[in-house]
C-alpha cells in the first residue's frame, strides 16, 4: 500500500518552519521564504505555484493542453472539472510523477524541474491521495514516519518523531495521537494522518485529490476546519474536486479545467454553482425533467410482505410494493436502511426470510438469479465494480455478463464472439460509451463510460423490470444526463423501473411513485410531483415520519 | 499490432521469469566452480547422432505430456479462483484404479483404451468432487481439503496396491497391479517421427500425446468459447459480479472441480498405457505438485502450459548431460524453482504493464479536444480502486446534503 | 598428468592377471562384454543412483563409497574413472540414466536400488556389450539379460542376528521394529528380525511399524516421523528398537536418547557416524555392505571375472551382512550370536523373507 518512493529526501528538509525563515538560498527548490503574515491583504500574495503552458501528451492523446494555473501562497485553490477532464494528469505533473512535454512549473516564481515525487517533496509539495496509503496495523507515528524515519544509532527515534508529530498536530489542529493504531481510526482521522504525513516531510503546498469523496458531511466540515488552519499557518492547498458546493464553501479561488485545458478561473464568492457547472461542462446543466405519465395498468413487479432477516434483525421489514409498466418507483432513504438488501432479494442474490416476489404475475421467489434475468429482470447494480463489470475483461465480455444465456452474445452452448463484439460496438455507439473498441479492458474506461456500458447492456435485453441502484453514482455530469434520458425513454416504452438512489433530485425528477425506506421498512409513499428535496430529506431521516 | 500488444505481456512474464532464473542459476553454477556457459551449451546439446537427437526430443516430449496434463488440470480450477492442490491424489488414485480396471477386462483395442481413460477420468473427477462438495456444503477451503485428500488418496492407493489390486508375485521387489493386456496399450508415435524423416529414437514417443493434445484443445475451447467457460472465467475474475450476473457459484465449484479432477485422472496414463502397463510402487509421483508450477508458468492458458511443460521436460533431460559435466542435477531443480518463483513476480509486473497499456489505449480512443464534441477526456484514473464519487452534481445544492453520518453511507470509499 | 596416470595403469596391468590385449584398443566399448577386462585408464564406471541421489547418507552413498574404493584400489581417480548420475526428483528418468551411461561408453554400469527392476532389462538388451549390475535387484533367472548381474543381500539373515541381539539384551521382553517403507525389501528385514527374536524368546513382544505405505518413499527421509513412531514404541514398553528406515533412522536414535533406551542401526555401522550422545544408544548395526558389493563387482569386472546373467548373494557366510560390534555393547552375547550365525550358514535355520 505504501509508496516507497515518497519521502526519500524528507530528512534533508525537516519541516520545522524555523528553517524556512526568510533568507537567500541558491537552491531553486528551497522555496517558501516568505511568511504569509508579512503579506498585506490587499496586495496580491506572491504565487506559490504557477504553471505556464503545460502540455502533456500520451501516445495518441493530449491529456493536458496549454494549462495555466496561478496559485497564491496561503490560499485554498480549487481545481474543478469533470471526470477525465485532466485534473489527475495535471496533479501528477505537479507532483513529479511524470514530466510535461511542454511548459514550465514555477514555484515562488522560480522555474523548477520535478523528476520524481522526491523532487516535489524536496520542493515542498505534498500529495494527499484520494485512496489512503496507510498500514492499518501500524500506529499513527509509524505511518507518518514510514519512509523518512528519524533514526538514532540505527534505531527508530520515537521520541523525536513523537514530539514532531505532536507539534504538527497541535499547529494545525489535527488532533492526532501518535500512538493510536491506524486501524482504530475513522476515515476522517485517517485522512488527517495522511495530511500529517505530508506535513512531516516539510510540505508547504498540499495537493488534496478528491479529499471529500470518502467523507460524510460532518467529516467534510472537520476537513474544511483543518484546511483553514493550514491556510492560517501560511500553507497553500490545492483542492481537487467536482463537488461544486464544497468548492464554493472552502476555496479562495477556483480554476476550471475542461477537456484537458484550463477554461477559466472563478471567484467562489461571486460565482454560483450553476455558473461553475456550466463552465465545467460547457453547457447548461441537465436536470431530470419528467415528461407525462406513462404508467399503465399491468403490474410487472409485486412485492408482498418481503422480509429479510440478517444478523438477528429485519434488514428488509415486510416490504410490499407494486411496479407497473411504464412506471418508475423510487426508493428513497439514507443509505444502509435496507435498500441494498431489498435489491438483492428482488434479484435473487439473497434469500428472503418470508414474503413473495412476483414478476409479471408469476411468483419468482424460488427462481435463480439467472432465471430471473432471463425472464426479464434487468440490473444496474449499486457498486458496478463489485457486481456490474469484470474490470480485467474486455468490453465485449462485459457485454455478455448477465446475459450469458441469450443472443446476441451466445449461440447455443457457445459464446458468439462475433455477435458479442458487434453488439458491443452498437452499445458503444448508441449509448455513447467512449472506448477504443470492444477489446478494450473495462478497467481502462472512466466510471461514467463503464456505467453507460452497463446501462446499455441492461437496456439492450429489453427487460420488463429494471432495477437501477444509484445509476448515476460516480459518473460525470454528461453521463448522468445520458443515463437519465435512457431511463425516461425506457419508461415511456413501458419498462417498469425500481430506482434506488441517494440523489434527491434524481429521485424526485424521475419517479412516478416514491417510497421512503427507513430501518428496513417502507415508511412513507409520496407523490414526487408535489415534493421538495427538503421535505423528502425530512422523511428519510425519520423527522417527518409522524406527518406522513 | 493489437495482437502483438495482447500477446506481448503474456509472453513477457514467463520470459522475464526464465531469464531471471537462468541468471540466478548461472550464479549458482559459478559458485560451485563451473562455467555457466558450458552448462548452457550442455543443456542445448541434444547428442551427436540423429538417433540421439530424436531420442532427446522423445525424452523431453514424454516428460512434458504428463506435466502438461497436470498443469491443465490445475489451470481449469485456477481460472475460476480455485486452488486444486489435490491433483496429486487425484491422479494417483485414478491411475491405480484405471490400471486395475484395464487389467481386469479384455476388449478390442480402442475400446479397451477408451475404458481405461474413462475410468481414470471418472475416478479423478469423483475424488476432486469430494473437495467441491465439502466446499459448497460446509464451506471447507478447497486448499485444506484437497491437501488432506492427497494423504488419504496416497494411503488408499497403497492399500489397494498391496491389497486387493496387487498383481505382482509375492516377494517381488516392486509391487504392481496386474499387467494390462496388449489391447489396452497405446502404441508409440515413432512411426510418425520416422515418417517425417527423423531418425528412429531408442524409446517410443507416447501415443498418449494425441489424447493430451485433444484434452488441451477441449479445455481451451471449453474455457474460451463456451457459456460454461465464460461463467467460469467470470467467477474467477469477480465472484460477486458473476453471482449478480446469474452464475450459480456452488454449481460452478462442483462442475469445475469435476472437470479439473477428470483431467487430473489422465496424468498417469501416458506412462501406464505407453510403457509400464501397470501401476506400481515405482510409479512416478509428485506430478500433481509440479502441475501447479507448470500452470503458473503457463499462465493458465493451454498453449502456455504446453510450452511450460516442454520447458520443464527440457530442463529435466538436461539434468543428465549436466552431471556428465560435473554439474550436480540439483542445478536443474534450482532453475525450475527459481523460474516458478520468478514467474509469480513477473506475472504481477506484466499485469501492471497490461493495465497501463489498457489505460493508455483508452486515452488514445477518446477524441482529442479539438473535436469539441464535449468529450470528457481520457480515463486517467489508475485501475483498481473504486471510482471517485462524483456525487450528484446538480448544482443546486440540495443533493449532497442527505447522507448517513454513521459512516455506512460512504460512497466509493477506497479504504 | 596423463603420463603419470598411464604409468599407474601400466602398473595396474602388471598386477592384474588379465591379458594385455584388451587395453590395446582406444575404443571405449572394446573392453565391454561379459568377462571383459579393463585397465584403470579405460575404466569408465557408471553409477546410477536411485531416489535421493548422491548425498543421501544411505544406500546411494554407500554404493558410491564402494565404487570410490574400487577405483582407487585399481589406481584410478573418481574424477577420471567414475561417473555418477542422480535421477530427477521423482526418479522418472531411471531408464534414461542407464541409457546415457551406456551410450557414453561407460562400462560397467551399476544401478542402485530395486526400482531399476522395471527398466534395466530393456536397457541391457539395447547395449549387449555393456556389463550391468543392479544392487538389490535379482537376476538369478537371467531374465534381465546375460549382461546383468544382480547384487543381492540376505537382509533377513543379518536382521535375524539383530533380532537375536535384541531379544538377548532386552529387559522388558518387548522390542520394536521401524521400517521406512512397507515394501517387500524392508519386510525382509522385519521377517528376519522377528524370527531371530522369537528364536531366543518365543514369547517376546515385537512392535512393528512402517513410516510410509508402499509406493510412498517419504518414509526413508522423515526423521521426524521416525522419532514419533519410536517414541511411541519406547513409551509402550519396548526398550530396543531396530530401524530399517534409511534417513529416518536418526529420529529413532533421538527417541532412544530421550527415552534412555537403545536402538539398532542399519546398513552401515551407524555407531561410527553418530554423535556421541547417540553412540551411547546404538547397541549394534545390521550391516548391509552395499559398498563391499559394489567394490567387489568393479574389481571383478576389472579382473574379467564377471559372469553375468546371475546373482551374487551377499549373506552371512560371505560377510555381506552381519552385525557391527562398535561400542562393545554386544560383546557379552557374542557367543550366542556366533552360534546362530553358524546355524544359519550351516542351513540348520532357514530365515523367512516375508513376515
According to CATH, what is the topology of the largest domain in chain A? Rossmann fold
Mean pLDDT of chain C: 84
Per CATH, the architecture of the largest domain in chain A is 3-Layer(aba) Sandwich
* Strand arrangement across the biggest beta sheet of chain A: 6-9-10-3-11-12
Tally of distinct domains of chain A = 3
Please provide the count of β strands of chain A. 24
Tell me the number of strands of chain C.
12
Average pLDDT of chain A, rounded to a whole number, is 79
Q: What is the highest CATH level, the class of the largest domain in chain C?
A: Alpha Beta
Quaternary class = heterotrimer
| Strand-residue proportion of chain C | 15-25%
CATH superfamily of the largest domain in chain A: P-loop containing nucleotide triphosphate hydrolases
At CATH level 3, the topology of the largest domain in chain C is Rossmann fold
Q: How many domains of chain C, as an integer? A: 2
The largest β sheet of chain A comes out as: 6 strands, mixed
Radius of gyration of chain C, in Å, reads 21 Å
Give the largest interface pair and sizes.
A-B, 115 and 78 residues
Beta-strand residue fraction of chain A: 15-25%
Amino acid at each position: 500500500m505504501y509508496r516507497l518512493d515518497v519521502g526519500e529526501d524528507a530528512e534533508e528538509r525537516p519541516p520545522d518552519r524555523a528553517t524556512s525563515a526568510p533568507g537567500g538560498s541558491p537552491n531553486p527548490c528551497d522555496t517558501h521564504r516568505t511568511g504569509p503574515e508579512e503579506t498585506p491583504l490587499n496586495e496580491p500574495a506572491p504565487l506559490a505555484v504557477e504553471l505556464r503552458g503545460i502540455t502533456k501528451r500520451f501516445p495518441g492523446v493530449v491529456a493536458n493542453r496549454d494549462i495555466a494555473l496561478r496559485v497564491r501562497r496561503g490560499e485554498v485553490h480549487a481545481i474543478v472539472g469533470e471526470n477525465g477532464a485532466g485534473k489527475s494528469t495535471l496533479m501528477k505533473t505537479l507532483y513529479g510523477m511524470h514530466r510535461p512535454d511542454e511548459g514550465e512549473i514555477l514555484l515562488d516564481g522560480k522555474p523548477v524541474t520535478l523528476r520524481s515525487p522526491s523532487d516535489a517533496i524536496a520542493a515542498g509539495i505534498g500529495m494527499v491521495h484520494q485512496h489512503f496509503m496507510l498500514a492499518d496495523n501500524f500506529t499513527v507515528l509509524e505511518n507518518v514516519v514510514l519512509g523518512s524515519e528519524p533514526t538514532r544509532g540505527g534505531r527508530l527515534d520515537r521520541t523525536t518523531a513523537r514530539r514532531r508529530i505532536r507539534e504538527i498536530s497541535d499547529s494545525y489542529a489535527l488532533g492526532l495521537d501518535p500512538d493510536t493504531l491506524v486501524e482504530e481510526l475513522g476515515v476522517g482521522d485517517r485522512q488527517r494522518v495522511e495530511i500529517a504525513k505530508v506535513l512531516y516531510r516539510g510540505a508547504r503546498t498540499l495537493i488534496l485529490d478528491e479529499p471529500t469523496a470518502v467523507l460524510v458531511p460532518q467529516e467534510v466540515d472537520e476537513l474544511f476546519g483543518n484546511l483553514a488552519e493550514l491556510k492560517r499557518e501560511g500553507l497553500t492547498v490545492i483542492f481537487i474536486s467536482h463537488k461544486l458546493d464544497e468548492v464554493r464553501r472552502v476555496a479562495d479561488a477556483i480554476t476550471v479545467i475542461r477537456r484537458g485545458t484550463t477554461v477559466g478561473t472563478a471567484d467562489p464568492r461571486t460565482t454560483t454553482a450553476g455558473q461553475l457547472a456550466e463552465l465545467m461542462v460547457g453547457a447548461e446543466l441537465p436536470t431530470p425533467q419528467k415528461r407525462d405519465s406513462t404508467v399503465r395498468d399491468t403490474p410487472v413487479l409485486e412485492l408482498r410482505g418481503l422480509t429479510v432477516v440478517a444478523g438477528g434483525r429485519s434488514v428488509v421489514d415486510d416490504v410490499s410494493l407494486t411496479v407497473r409498466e411504464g412506471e418508475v418507483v423510487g426508493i428513497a432513504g439514507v443509505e444502509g436502511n435496507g435498500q441494498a438488501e431489498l435489491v438483492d432479494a428482488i434479484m435473487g442474490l439473497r434469500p428472503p426470510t418470508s414474503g413473495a416476489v412476483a414478476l409479471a404475475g408469476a411468483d419468482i421467489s424460488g427462481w435463480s438469479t439467472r432465471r430471473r434475468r432471463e425472464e426479464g429482470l434487468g440490473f444496474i447494480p449499486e457498486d458496478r465494480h463489485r457486481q456490474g463489470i469484470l474490470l480485467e475483461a474486455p468490453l465485449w465480455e462485459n457485454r455478455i455478463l448477465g446475459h450469458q444465456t441469450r443472443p446476441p452474445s451466445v449461440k447455443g452452448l457457445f459464446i458468439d464472439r462475433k455477435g458479442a463484439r458487434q453488439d458491443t460496438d452498437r452499445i458503444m455507439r448508441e449509448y455513447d460509451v467512449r472506448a477504443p473498441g470492444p477489446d478494450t479492458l473495462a478497467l481502462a474506461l472512466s466510471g461514467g463510460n463503464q456505467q453507460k456500458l452497463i446501462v446499455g447492456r441492461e437496456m439492450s435485453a429489453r427487460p420488463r423490470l429494471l432495477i437501477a441502484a444509484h445509476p448515476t453514482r460516480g459518473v460525470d455530469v454528461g453521463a448522468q444526463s445520458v443515463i437519465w434520458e435512457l431511463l425516461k425513454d425506457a419508461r415511456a416504452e413501458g419498462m417498469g423501473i425500481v430506482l434506488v438512489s441517494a440523489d434527491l433530485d434524481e429521485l424526485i425528477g424521475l419517479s412516478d411513485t416514491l417510497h421512503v425506506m427507513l430501518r428496513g421498512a417502507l415508511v412513507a409513499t409520496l407523490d414526487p410531483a408535489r415534493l421538495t428535496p427538503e421535505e423528502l430529506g425530512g422523511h428519510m431521516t425519520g423527522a417527518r415520519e409522524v406527518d406522513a | 499490432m493489437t495482437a502483438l500488444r495482447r500477446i506481448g505481456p503474456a509472453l513477457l512474464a514467463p520470459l522475464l521469469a526464465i531469464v531471471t532464473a537462468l541468471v540466478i542459476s548461472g550464479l549458482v553454477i559459478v559458485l560451485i566452480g563451473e562455467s555457466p556457459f558450458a552448462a548452457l551449451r550442455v543443456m542445448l546439446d541434444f547428442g551427436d547422432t540423429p538417433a540421439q537427437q530424436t531420442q532427446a526430443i522423445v525424452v523431453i516430449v514424454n516428460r512434458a505430456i504428463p506435466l502438461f496434463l497436470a498443469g491443465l488440470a490445475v489451470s481449469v480450477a485456477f481460472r475460476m479462483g480455485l486452488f486444486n492442490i489435490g491433483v496429486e491424489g487425484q491422479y494417483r488414485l485414478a491411475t491405480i484404479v484405471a490400471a486395475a480396471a484395464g487389467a481386469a477386462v479384455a476388449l478390442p483395442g480402442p475400446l479397451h483404451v477408451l475404458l481405461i481413460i474413462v475410468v481414470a477420468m471418472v475416478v479423478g473427477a469423483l475424488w476432486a468432487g469430494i473437495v467441491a462438495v465439502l466446499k459448497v456444503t460446509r464451506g471447507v477451503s478447497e486448499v485444506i481439503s484437497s491437501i488432506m485428500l492427497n494423504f488419504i488418496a496416497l494411503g488408499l492407493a497403497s492399500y489397494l496396491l498391496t491389497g486387493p489390486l496387487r498383481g505382482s508375485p509375492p516377494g517381488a521387489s516392486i509391487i504392481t497391479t496386474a499387467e494390462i493386456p496388449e489391447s489396452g496399450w497405446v502404441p508409440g508415435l515413432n512411426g510418425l517421427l520416422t515418417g517425417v524423416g527423423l531418425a528412429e529414437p531408442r524409446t517410443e514417443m507416447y501415443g498418449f500425446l494425441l489424447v493430451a493434445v485433444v484434452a488441451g484443445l477441449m479445455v481451451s475451447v471449453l474455457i474460451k468459447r463456451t457459456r460454461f467457460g465464460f461463467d467460469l472465467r467470470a467467477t474467477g475474475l469477480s465472484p460477486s459480479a458473476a453471482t449478480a450476473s446469474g452464475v450459480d457459484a456452488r454449481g460452478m465449484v462442483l462442475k469445475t472441480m469435476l472437470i479439473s479432477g477428470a483431467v487430473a485422472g489422465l496424468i498417469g496414463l501416458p506412462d501406464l498405457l505407453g510403457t509400464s502397463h501397470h501401476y506400481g510402487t515405482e510409479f512416478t509421483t509428485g506430478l500433481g505438485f509440479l502441475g501447479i508450477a507448470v500452470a503458473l508458468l503457463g499462465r493458465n492458458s493451454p498453449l502456455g502450459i504446453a510450452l511450460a511443460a516442454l520447458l520443464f521436460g527440457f530442463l529435466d533431460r538436461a539434468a543428465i548431460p549436466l552431471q556428465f559435466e560435473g554439474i550436480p542435477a540439483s542445478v536443474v531443480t534450482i532453475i525450475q524453482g527459481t523460474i516458478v518463483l520468478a514467474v509469480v513476480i513477473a506475472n504481477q509486473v506484466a499485469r501492471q504493464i497490461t493495465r497501463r497499456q489498457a489505460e493508455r489505449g483508452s486515452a488514445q480512443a477518446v477524441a482529442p479536444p479539438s473535436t469539441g464534441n464535449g468529450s470528457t477526456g481520457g480515463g486517467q484514473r489508475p485501475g483498481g480502486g473504486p471510482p471517485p464519487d462524483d456525487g450528484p452534481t446538480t448544482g443546486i445544492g440540495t443533493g449532497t446534503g442527505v447522507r448517513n453520518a454513521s459512516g455506512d453511507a460512504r460512497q466509493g470509499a477506497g479504504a | 598428468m596423463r603420463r603419470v596416470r598411464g604409468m599407474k595403469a601400466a602398473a595396474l596391468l602388471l598386477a592384474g592377471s588379465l591379458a594385455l590385449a584388451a587395453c590395446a584398443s582406444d575404443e571405449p566399448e572394446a573392453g565391454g562384454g561379459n568377462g571383459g577386462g579393463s585397465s584403470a585408464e579405460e575404466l569408465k564406471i557408471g553409477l546410477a543412483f536411485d531416489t535421493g541421489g548422491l548425498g543421501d547418507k544411505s544406500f546411494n552413498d554407500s554404493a558410491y563409497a564402494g565404487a570410490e574404493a574400487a577405483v582407487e584400489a585399481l589406481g584410478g581417480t573418481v574424477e577420471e574413472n567414475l561417473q555418477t548420475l542422480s535421477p530427477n526428483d521423482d526418479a522418472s528418468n531411471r531408464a534414461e540414466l542407464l541409457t546415457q551411461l551406456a551410450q557414453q561408453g561407460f562400462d560397467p554400469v551399476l544401478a542402485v536400488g530395486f526400482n531399476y527392476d522395471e527398466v534395466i532389462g530393456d536397457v541391457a538388451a539395447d547395449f549387449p556389450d555393456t556389463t550391468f549390475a543392479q544392487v538389490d535387484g535379482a537376476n538369478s533367472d537371467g531374465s534381465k539379460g546375460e549382461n546383468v548381474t544382480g547384487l543381492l543381500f540376505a537382509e533377513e539373515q543379518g536382521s535375524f542376528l539383530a533380532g537375536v541381539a535384541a531379544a538377548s539384551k532386552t529387559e522388558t521382553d518387548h522390542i520394536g521394529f521401524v521400517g521406512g517403507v512397507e515394501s517387500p525389501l524392508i519386510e525382509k528385514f522385519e521377517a528376519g528380525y522377528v524370527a531371530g527374536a522369537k528364536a531366543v524368546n518365543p514369547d517376546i513382544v515385537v512392535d512393528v511399524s512402517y513410516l510410509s505405505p508402499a509406493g510412498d518413499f517419504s518414509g526413508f527421509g522423515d526423521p521426524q516421523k521416525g522419532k514419533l513412531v519410536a517414541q511411541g514404541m519406547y513409551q509402550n514398553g519396548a526398550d530396543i528398537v531396530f530401524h530399517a528406515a534409511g534417513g529416518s533412522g536418526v529420529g529413532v536414535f533421538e527417541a532412544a536418547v530421550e527415552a534412555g533406551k537403545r536402538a539398532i542401526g542399519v546398513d552401515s555401522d551407524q555407531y561410527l557416524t553418530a554423535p556421541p550422545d547417540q553412540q551411547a544408544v546404538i547397541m549394534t548395526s545390521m550391516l548391509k555392505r552395499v559398498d563391499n558389493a559394489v567394490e567387489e563387482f568393479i574389481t571383478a569386472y576389472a579382473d574379467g571375472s564377471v559372469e553375468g546373467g546371475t546373482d551374487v548373494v551377499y549373506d552371512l557366510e560371505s560377510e555381506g551382512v552381519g552385525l557391527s560390534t562398535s561400542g562393545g555393547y554386544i560383546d557379552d552375547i557374542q557367543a550366542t550370536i556366533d552360534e546362530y550365525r553358524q546355524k544359519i550358514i550351516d542351513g540348520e535355520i532357514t530365515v523367512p523373507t516375508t513376515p
